[in-house]
């Protein structure tokens, strides 16, 4: 039974898939360094920004495991999406994600990215991030405490070292599926902003 | 042939020494902030990680500018005498180093503007404005040294200071000059409070805004080499160089002092920065140069 | 309090408001008819209420009315006045106030976006402000169901129940 294009896309459930067989020797070698030095871009939407300063500063000190904040998407490895994600923000997030350099990882932060959280019935907040972007790791909580954040980052480092954090490969391989979801939720991904016309 | 090997040895020394020191600098900053801080080899990991990432190109000028910045800085580095490791015996002239140092900055400016990002243009503009600020007092002080020694050769100036023991250093023979030199050094290194061009919170790290992956790794390396050039110049001019061991010890002290100052102060705005440089260090440099011209080095302040 | 009563008396002598109340210390609410709102706003602006703090809208679905609320602030005596008026909900139309308060342009766009009120005379009132590519009822109306919209538009995570409590355990 031959499927047409749309049905093929609908058949995919990317979260079941595994791209680990596509790793080359150099990527395995590079993963050793990548796991020890993570530069993050924190796109702080909502209340997620509250928990990051304690994590970065002297009490929990993110820098001792090699993490540092970065100012631009081009320099960052990890996109932290903290807090609720409105439809308007998602357009900018997709732009930001596609500007980052491979390999790149996405960390969903808090209940809102996981299942909508307290905004599960809002008309402007998406309920599930991994349909639109390849999320490598979720940190549950509302908001997660800095201890949870640190443990999540350690987990991400182990995943990178073992070569399990391959969201960026999934995004390239199944781009049609992600694009279809984005278009269904957003209408179109193109950002039109009257203040930048 | 021996020149070639000496140059390679100097490059390797600069690479391992300065990147290790950058890691230690992060550790020191963290300790001042009451944090644990990253391990001392963190910067090596960062560098290799940056080289293992993919990167994007914005055109020929963008790529060429990065190579020009790195190459120009390496070329400058070879002329700087590190203790008694002098590659070109008769060429380590101060003017050669100053001219070559501009190539690195110009390459970076060219590349950053070639990326087409407005933040990069603002950052480059700020960087050049800052250069205008610190170059003038620094050059005036160094001209004082050159006038007093009747030579512009760096290692000759360094050796002239070693005749009289520790009191013969230019640091103690021209106390105002060393203040000017140190403030200008902070500006050259781009340490706080003079890190206006690379303000991450305001202009998204300025000239570096579009660089990712391999380009960023190269520019990090360029920055480390430029740091070696600038601090090495300061040590040779004001602290008498010395053998390679003493040179590195003095280097360590100067760099850590700059780091400690940088880790507790905030950032200048660009207009405040230029105003500051044209007020305090320039006035001190004028006074120092006048003292040197009329009474020579080492005024008998210390009697 | 006396001062506030003076203001209310002054308003009553010039217009005929439907209802006046002193909401709390230094805040007055006045209900006008639709026709009188613009002249009242112009008069209050000439009396020192120079700032339009916000224009907002309340949906009274049982009365089938929208209530427009103009909140004005006087920086000299720190008294806030709410100028309120009710308009028809089925065909919500109102004349714009941008000739009196130019800053009202954005507020009117906002109210049009979230409630669907048309402001005649404001050339930009139909431009989208917050919601991009909106394709449904205006979302702040009370007959709009956000949960249904969210389920229609966004994918929901399905949960499997994998914890079955044993005998005697709390569920």
Explain this structure:
Chain A: Keywords: Quinone. The complex is a heterotrimer of chains A (197), B (303) and C (171). Chain A is 42% helix and 12% strand. Chain A is built from eight helices and five strands, in the order ααβαββαβαβααα. In chain A, strand 3, helix 4 and strand 4 form a beta-alpha-beta unit. With 303 residues, chain B is mostly helical. Chain B is built from twelve helices and no strands. Chain B has helices spanning 2-32, 42-52, 60-79, 94-114, 118-149, 154-161, 170-173, 175-189, 200-203, 214-238, 244-262, 270-295. The radius of gyration of chain B is 19 Å and the shape is globular. The relative contact order of chain B is 0.16. The mean pLDDT of chain B is 84. Chain C is an alpha/beta fold and 171 residues long. Chain C has one domain: Beta Polymerase, domain 2. Chain C is built from four helices and seven strands. A five-stranded mixed sheet of chain C has the order 1-2-5-4-3. In chain C, strands 6-7 form a two-stranded parallel ribbon. The N and C termini of chain C lie far apart (58 Å). The mean pLDDT of chain C is 82. Chain A binds chain B through residues 26, 29-30, 33-34, 36-37, 57-58, 61, 63-64, 66, 69-75, 77, 100-103, and chain B through 26, 30, 33-39, 42, 45-46, 48-49, 52-56, 200-201, 204-205, 208-213, 216.
Highlighted features:
heterotrimer, B: 303 residues, C: 171 residues, alpha/beta, Beta Polymerase, domain 2, five-stranded mixed sheet, two-stranded parallel sheet, 4 helices, elongated, transmembrane helix (chain B), NADH_UbQ_OxRdtase_su1/FPO (chain B), NADH-quinone oxidoreductase subunit H (chain B), ComplexI_Subunit1 (chain B), transmembrane (chain B)
